[in-house]
Amino acid sequence: MQSSGNVGGGRKCFWGFRSLIQRKQVDSVHVRSEGHHQLARKLSVTDLIAIGVGATIGAGVYVLVGTVAREHAGPALTISFLIAGIAAALSAFCYAELACRCPSAGSAYHYSYICVGEGVAWLVGWALILEYTIGGAAVARGITPNLALFFGGVDKLPAILAPHTIPVFGIVVDPCAAVLVLIVTFLLCTGIKESSLVQMIVTSVNVSVMLFIVIAGGYLGFKTGWVGYELPSGYFPFGINGMFAGSAVVFFSYIGFDSVTSTVEEVKNPQRDLPLGIGIALFICCILYMFVSFVITGLVPYYALDPDTPISSVFASYGLHWAVFIITTGAITALFASLLGSLLAQPRILMAMARDGLLPSFFSDINKNTQVPVKSTVTTGIFAAVLAFFMDVSQLAGMVSVGTLFAFTTAAVSVLILRYVPPDEVPLSSSLQESIKSVSLRFGPNIQESDSKNLQNPSGSSENNSRYLHEIGEASIGYPLIQKSISQENQNEQTRRKISAWTITFLCMGVFIFAFAASAQGLSSILRFTVCGVCGALLLCCLIVLTCTDQDDGRHSFGHTGELPHGSASLYGLP
């Protein structure tokens, strides 16, 4: 009895572990056939660029320029933004490829569920939920002090919007932040096209302000001789290490383009428009960041920049106090666009998780009038408004960064898996596809006739399939070399998949150990260099093996149909 109990427990543990690593075989977008309402496909490339730029350019650039220049990079801040932009572009390419091959809402959660497994997807989904919720609440809280500048200070705000302190608990509540979150939530519930239009207007204002900073600052720089670059310490006062440290900090100013991929089911032509939207949006952000940092660090010495309001203080030092209101307008619009991007993406993450059964089906409902997930949007808005009203969530920004990096990492790994060891929907081998084509050409008219008969008489479909399969079996008996070729090719394919899977596993382990050893402070220098050297050699070997290994170039149907020749799918019993 005890041994049988142990066996039963072992089986439960095995099946529990297997459920964590099982990958999605049927795309969640197929729930359309079950009578659910669809999301409205109304977004174009222009809408995606506006959403991407608006969600990426937050008010951080108005603060990071001073902090990073003073503490890390100095005048080399422009190069730091360039390096961070290149690193962000690599992640953007991963998201663009995954969005094209797996065009379904859910962003990194959806990709990790298809490529890695359910357990990792569950973690990524909640990491994204925390990122968008906490990030949105933090952004809403940041709008209040900037908005107060137009009223002459926080004390001059209307009493109903001004922050108040609860004496008993010592909590500072922010009604203005909560109201802004609720306004954005209502806007998102009206429809995706209306939301993208507002995002486009707000983002245009923000970009115009940044262009004003570049043009006006460039005029002042050429007029005064760029005094910020005439320093005895040179262009790299903190050395190359300081420049790379600055790029690591400003990398998070590029976060936001991933929210574009969550709208994939609302894009008219996702295979074409999503890569263009993500790429152009990231390029615009990188150019604006570099020009703004170049101008600001050139107008005054880097050590004289105000860490809190660097851009406003620079223009004020040249006597342009009126420019402060323009820059403040840019900061407010940047924060509003970032808030809109956060609250736009999260309901679609909830909807995707609900479709897959990881959340209640309540979150997957789509309103038939506005064609947006209204219930998920309202839930997200209420929760974010409560956070923005009661809590100062700026201290949780570290959790947001960790969740974002986790999502980026799984997206990069998913690309490798999708290229070398795609999920269970394995494409047919080339020889079998040729056999299908030959059978399709031979029985083409009969297949079309049988398909039309099957629609009228479904019970006769199995008899027709049996007859055709019998004829194919006779053909394979008459030509045994075809059957041997097919089995040999399948065996080679399985060997290739095993080699690729183990190589990707060792590559991920090597990257993790290398990063841990390089950042561990408690390790001795000899041990650190030894571990880093071994892991570096392992990474190099894995990259060489993957380069020499053929990628899987078959057609898949993770979110769009990879069509077989007409009639072949029904002939072979494929869906």
From TrEMBL:
Q: Say where the protein is mainly found.
A: membrane
Domain of life per record = Eukaryota
Please report the record's description of how this protein sits within the membrane: Multi-pass membrane protein
User: What protein name applies here?
Assistant: Cationic amino acid transporter C-terminal domain-containing protein
Q: Which organism is it from?
A: Prunus persica (Peach)
Q: What is the lineage of its organism?
A: Eukaryota, Viridiplantae, Streptophyta, Embryophyta, Tracheophyta
Q: Which family does it belong to?
A: Belongs to the amino acid-polyamine-organocation (APC) superfamily. Cationic amino acid transporter (CAT) (TC 2.A.3.3) family.
Q: Does the keyword Iron apply?
A: no
One annotated Gene Ontology cellular component of this protein: membrane
Keyword annotations from UniProtKB, A to Z: Membrane, Transmembrane, Transmembrane helix
Answer whether the UniProt record assigns the keyword Disulfide bond to this protein.
no
Cell compartment(s), UniProt = Membrane
Supply the InterPro entries for this chain.
AA/rel_permease1 (IPR002293)
